[in-house]
C-alpha cells in the first residue's frame, strides 16, 4: 500500500512547474518532499540531499565564537583570505594529501560551489580555442548547471566503463580536439562513491600536462574512502590526488562534509604554485590582468562575493590546524556515514534492490556518504516516481551524467528510526513491483 496519495504528488509537482521526476533539481526535490510531508502528515526517508547529518565540529564552533567575540564582524576580510587560513590550508594539504601548495595559492571561497564557479570562469578564459569543460561523470549535477549559467560548453563521459587502462585513450579522445579548457571530477565520486586510483590520477595528470589543460579536482570528501586507513597527518597512505602528476590543477577543499560545517559556506580553492603564478595573454585581454592567481582573486572572487566571511575563515583555520596537529581526528566522526550506508545497502538488497555502481575497478565500491540504488525493470525516472508514493526520495542518476539507470541516495539524514521505516516501505514496494 502506498504511503503518499499519488494525487498529492501530481498536485505538488504541478505547483513547482515540473512534469517529470528527472526534471527535478536537488533543491526542487527537497521542496517537493517538504510539501508532501506537510500535506500527508507522513515523514519521508530522505535520500535526496547531501546535508551533513552529524553535529558541526566543536573545534570550529569554538573558534567561530571566539572570532565573533573578538570583533571581526566589523572588519572586511582580505579578499585573498586571512593569513591563518591560508597557512593552515597549505599545512592541511601537505599533511593529508602529501602535496605542497604555497599559502598564497590557497584562496577562501563561499563553499566549493563558488570555488568551482570561479574555476570554470577562469579556465574558460585562458585561451580563445579552449571553450569546453570535460566532466568525468557521474558527477555533481550543479557543477554542470554552473557551466550552463556561464555559457560554457561542456562534454562528459561515464567513467565506470573506462577504468584503469581504458581511461587514457578515452580521455585523450577529447583532449586531442584542442578545445578542452579544464577537466572536472570529484574523488571520492558524488554520486557513486567510486574512487579514482593513483594510477588513474597519474594518467589524468600526465595528459593534462601534455595537452596543457587544467584539472579541477573536487575533494569535498577528502580521506572518505573508508576502505583505506587515511586521515593520519603527515603519514602514508595519503589521499590520492592528481597534484602528484601535474602542475595544472585547482583543488577544492570544503568544510561542509569533513567537518559538518556546511551552514557557514566556507571552503578553499588551492591553486598549484606553477599555475597561480602563470601569465596568460588572453586573461589580460579579458580581465586586464594576465596572472592566473591575480585574476582568480582580484577579478573573480572580488566581484562574486568580495571575500568570504571573516569568522568562518578563522573557524576553518582552527579545524585545519587541529586536524594537522593530530589533536582532532575528523575521520573518526565521519566514519559514521560508512556504517549507515552499509546497513542501508543490506536493507535494499533484501528487498529486491541493487547497488547500481557496485564496483570500483576490481573492488566493491566503498561505503560512504553517497551510494546508488536501482530496481529491476524500472528506469531511474520511473523508480523515483514510484518511490515517492512510498515516502522515499532520491535523485535520478541521469541528472548526474550517469549512463546507468537508478537513484542517487545519501546516508546523511538517516536516523536510527529510519532503518525499520525504510525496510517496511521497501517490503511493500517490492510486493507491488516484484515480477
- Sketch the major β-sheet: 7 strands, mixed
Strand order of the largest sheet: 1-7-6-5-4-2-3
Measured by DSSP, the beta-strand proportion falls in 5-15%
Ends distance: 17 Å
Shape: globular
Q: Percent range for helical residues?
A: 40-55%
Radius of gyration: 22 Å
| Strand segment count | 12
Roughly what is the average pLDDT, rounded to an integer?
95
By DSSP (H or I, 4+ residues per run), the number of helices equals 17
Helix vs. strand class:
alpha/beta
Provide the succession of SSEs.
Answer: HHHHEHEHEHEHEEHEHHHHHHEEEHEEH
Regions with little confidence, pLDDT below 50 for 5+ residues: none
What does this structure look like?
Helix content is 43%, strand content 12%. It has 435 residues and is α/β, with parallel strands linked by helices. The chain has helices at 6-15, 26-40, 58-69, 83-96, 111-123, 141-150, 167-175, 198-210, 255-258, 273-276, 281-287, 292-305, 310-325, 330-334, 336-350, 380-389, 416-433, and strands at 106-109, 132-137, 153-158, 180-186, 214-218, 249-254, 267-271, 359-360, 363-364, 370-373, 395-396, 407-410. Strands 1-7-6-5-4-2-3 form a seven-stranded mixed sheet, with helices on both faces. A three-stranded antiparallel sheet has the order 10-12-11, with helices on one face. Helix 3 packs across helix 13.
Fold blueprint:
Elements: H1 6-15, H2 26-40, H3 58-69, H4 83-96, E1 106-109, H5 111-123, E2 132-137, H6 141-150, E3 153-158, H7 167-175, E4 180-186, H8 198-210, E5 214-218, E6 249-254, H9 255-258, E7 267-271, H10 273-276, H11 281-287, H12 292-305, H13 310-325, H14 330-334, H15 336-350, E8 359-360, E9 363-364, E10 370-373, H16 380-389, E11 395-396, E12 407-410, H17 416-433
Helix pairs in contact: 1-2, 3-13, 4-13, 5-6, 5-12, 7-8, 15-17
Amino acid at each position: 500500500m502506498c504511503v503518499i496519495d499519488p494525487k498529492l504528488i501530481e498536485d505538488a509537482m504541478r505547483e513547482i512547474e515540473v512534469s517529470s521526476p528527472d526534471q527535478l533539481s536537488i533543491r526542487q526535490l527537497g521542496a517537493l518532499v517538504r510539501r508532501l510531508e506537510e500535506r500527508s502528515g507522513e515523514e519521508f526517508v530522505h535520500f535526496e540531499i547531501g546535508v551533513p547529518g552529524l553535529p558541526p565540529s566543536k573545534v570550529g564552533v569554538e573558534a567561530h565564537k571566539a572570532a565573533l567575540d573578538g570583533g571581526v564582524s566589523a572588519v572586511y576580510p582580505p579578499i585573498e583570505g586571512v593569513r591563518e587560513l591560508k597557512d593552515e590550508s597549505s599545512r592541511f594539504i601537505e599533511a593529508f594529501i602529501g602535496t605542497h601548495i604555497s599559502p598564497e595559492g590557497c584562496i577562501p571561497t563561499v563553499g566549493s560551489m563558488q570555488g568551482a564557479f570561479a574555476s570554470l570562469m577562469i579556465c574558460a578564459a585562458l585561451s580563445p580555442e579552449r571553450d569546453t569543460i570535460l566532466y568525468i561523470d557521474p558527477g555533481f549535477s550543479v557543477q554542470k548547471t554552473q557551466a550552463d549559467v556561464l555559457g560554457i560548453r561542456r562534454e562528459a563521459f561515464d567513467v565506470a566503463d573506462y577504468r584503469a587502462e581504458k581511461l587514457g585513450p578515452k580521455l585523450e579522445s577529447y583532449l586531442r580536439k584542442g578545445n578542452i579548457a579544464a577537466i572536472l571530477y570529484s574523488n571520492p565520486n558524488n554520486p557513486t562513491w567510486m574512487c579514482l586510483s593513483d594510477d588513474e590520477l597519474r594518467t589524468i595528470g600526465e595528459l593534462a600536462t601534455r595537452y596543457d589543460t587544467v584539472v579541477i579536482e573536487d575533494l569535498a570528501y577528502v580521506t572518505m574512502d573508508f576502505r583505506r586507513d587515511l586521515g593520519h597527518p603527515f603519514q602514508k597512505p595519503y589521499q590520492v590526488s592528481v597534484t602528484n602528476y601535474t602542475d595544472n590543477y585547482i583543488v577544492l577543499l570544503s568544510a561542509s562534509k569533513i567537518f559538518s560545517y556546511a551552514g557557514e559556506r566556507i571552503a578553499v580553492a588551492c591553486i598549484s604554485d606553477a599555475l597561480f603564478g602563470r601569465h596568460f595573454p588572453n586573461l589580460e585581454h579579458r580581465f586586464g590582468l594576465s596572472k592566473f592567481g591575480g585574476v582568480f582573486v582580484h577579478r573573480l572572487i572580488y566581484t562574486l562575493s568580495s571575500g568570504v566571511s571573516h569568522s568562518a575563515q578563522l573557524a576553518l583555520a582552527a579545524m585545519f590546524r587541529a586536524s594537522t596537529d593530530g589533536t582532532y581526528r575528523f575521520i573518526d566522526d565521519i566514519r559514521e556515514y560508512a556504517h549507515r550506508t552499509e546497513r542501508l545497502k543490506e536493507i535494499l538488497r533484501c528487498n529486491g534492490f541493487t547497488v547500481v555502481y557496485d564496483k570500483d575497478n576490481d573492488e566493491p565500491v566503498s561505503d560512504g556518504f553517497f551510494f546508488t540504488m536501482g530496481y529491476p525493470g524500472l528506469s531511474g525516472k520511473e523508480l523515483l516516481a514510484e518511490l515517492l508514493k512510498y515516502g522515499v526520495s532520491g535523485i535520478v542518476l541521469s541528472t548526474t551524467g550517469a549512463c546507468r539507470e537508478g537513484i542517487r541516495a545519501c546516508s546523511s539524514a538517516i536516523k536510527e528510526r529510519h532503518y525499520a521505516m525504510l525496510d517496511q516501505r521497501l517490503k511493500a514496494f517490492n510486493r507491488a513491483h516484484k515480477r
